[in-house]
Design goal:
Largest sheet: 3 strands, antiparallel
Number of helices: 14
Strand content: under 5%
Helix content: 40-55%
Structural class: mainly alpha
Low-confidence stretches: 1-13, 16-23
Strand order of the largest sheet: 1-2-3
Number of strands: 3
Length: about 300
């Protein structure tokens, strides 16, 4: 287990923190945020990158960004990310934020292209069986809650995609759901089965949402991110499942179950909104159907 370095050791590993008076970094996060907004980055990305930049600048609290060089960035990544035991995903976000910041805002000795990303982790997605998904959905008594989680699984949605849906995004004549400005700023269409479409119609008749397909307690306001997580938590408890299920598990399960039923990987890539086929290919490693067809050489002994 990683332990927090002592003050003396931390000063040795992180020399930038041990120096002089603080510099004024107040304008930089705002300038960076405004640039991201102008470039039409998503609200979540703007929040993540701006927060990451503040962590980076706070590390060099006694220096202005223009005075930093490649060695300083390497020291930061080693001290504040790697030695602190933070995840590959967080390091990647930090690299993206710092690269963009120096490319767009600061003209210094740092070459953004030299800021290296961590080696990619190949972590298998967590997947539920169909019976486990059914248990979770059937444990929900609230019609809206059941409809929301059902739609995530039925269409392979991300949490933000679900909460950003509007009533007009449901095309009941063509049995399609339009997902607007999903990850990467791309729209996509996913099919709606008769079963999920009937569920949506029943939900709409009761709740009559005004602006968003799923609204919170205040009419016209979208359902909250924490609230939908709480709904899932309650469903997991009621279902008796002992796994640390997240909303994204439902999306992973959708993709894996499609693959197991014989759906072409290229179609799954389109349905999930993956830019690269390599992202979708990870589901081939967790498909029970594919794995179970493999014959072990042990049987030939």
């Amino acid at each position: 287990m990683l332990t927090k370095p002592s003050p003396t050791l931390e000063s040795a590993l992180c020399p930038s923190k041990a120096l002089g008076s603080e510099a004024n970094h107040g304008e930089y996060p705002l300038r960076f945020k405004n640039w991201l907004v102008q470039k039409r980055y998503s609200p979540n990305t703007i929040k993540t990158y701006t927060s990451a930049l503040k962590v980076f600048l706070n590390h060099f609290s006694n220096r202005l960004p223009e005075s930093l060089n490649d060695k300083d960035v390497e020291e930061f990544m080693l001290c504040r990310i790697v030695n602190a035991g933070l995840s590959h995903a967080y390091q990647n976000q930090m690299v993206n934020a710092v690269r963009l910041f120096f490319k767009a805002i600061v003209k210094s000795e740092i070459n953004p292209a030299t800021i290296e990303r961590p080696r990619r982790e190949y972590v298998l997605p967590n997947v539920l069986s169909k019976s486990e998904v059914k248990k979770i959905l059937e444990s929900l008594r609230n019609q809206k809650h059941r409809c929301m989680l059902s739609l995530i699984y039925a269409c392979g949605l991300r949490r933000g995609e679900l909460l950003n849906l509007k009533p007009d995004d449901v095309d009941s004549k063509r049995n399609l759901l339009k997902i607007r400005l999903a990850k990467g700023g791309r729209d996509r269409m996913v099919p709606l089965t008769p079963k999920i479409l009937t569920m949506l119609r029943d939900y709409y008749r009761v709740y009559r949402p005004k602006v968003w397909l799923f609204e919170g307690q205040i009419a016209g306001m979208p359902y909250g991110e924490r609230s939908i997580q709480s709904v899932l938590k309650q469903a997991i408890k009621a279902s008796g499942i002992k796994k640390p299920v997240t909303l994204h598990w439902l999306r992973h399960s959708y993709a894996t179950h499609l693959l197991e039923s014989g759906t072409d990987l290229r179609y799954i890539q389109t349905l999930l909104g993956h830019k690269s086929s390599k992202t979708t290919e990870i589901y081939t490693h967790v498909s029970e159907h594919s794995i179970q067809k493999i014959r072990s050489p042990f049987d030939d002994l």
